[in-house]
Structure prediction request, 308 residues.
Amino acid sequence: MPDHALAQAALTVEAARAGRAPRPHVTSFFDPATFTASHVARDPGSKSAAIIDSVLDFNPASGRTATRSADLIVNFAREQGLTIEWILETHAHADHLSAAPYLQQKLGGKIAIGSQIVTVQETFGTLFHAGPEFARDGSQFDRLFQDGDTFKIGNLDVSVLHVPGHTPADIAYVVGEAAFIGDTLFMPDYGTARTDFPGGSARTLYRSIRRLLSLPGETRLLLCHDYKAPGRDQFAWETTVAQEKAANLHVHDGVEEESFVAMRKARDATLDMPRLILPSIQVNMRGGRLPEPESNGTRYLKLPLDVF
Ligand SMILES: [Fe+2]
Prediction:
């Protein structure tokens, strides 16, 4: 079956590479507490920009949130005079809280995520025993994107690819020649994202990754995380399709689906749950909004016992 969404994304990359369409200026902000790279993609011909995968700081010992990381982006956007059109999520993160609502309040823009977020909301709404006030229809977001959707950031063309596996809802945003691929591939020397969260699948991730690696070799890949690989002392969050195909530890060219699935499952079985998974999921399934305050004015998160 022809993959129209992938063909569309490849055209988006090729048009930018050939100079027929603008190429994004990308500025990245790395949060060493959660190993998250947030990105600002800007149309060079206007002040229009999008923020991808932001971080709200959270101290799990005190239960205190902070906006130090998000304010770096707010300050950058204001200094540059940017018009933030979009606040994009690649997925509902399990290792950091999203700052999307805070950024929207400060800078404007529409908050968007993949349409399969409704599956994630159903799963985690049940798991956290959320009440009927928690809508499981994605209505906390301004826009839900599907595979093959296209939109604009100023004059930049964006193509959306659904790349599930890490979670059911992951999407990649192909902005001109730069693909923001969330948690699918990591740097070549680190490998791939885990697939053991509810709704994750190693086989599905493999197929999503093969799709991403069918984009032109020069496609820039912007990652959501880096943990440094053994022997590397700098954090890094950008690579290319060609580099991943040649050298990705887990999925370089020649690695077959069955051996990837076996490797990924074996590796996932050794991983601890992320430090912030319980707070992150409860906040991010609500589009980054904190739970409503109780009658004493305090907001509470739940801690399910013996579930994860
Ligand atoms: Fe993630």
Notes: The helical segments are 4-17, 68-80, 100-107, 117-127, 202-212, 241-247, 257-268, 277-284. The chain is about 25% helix and 20% strand.
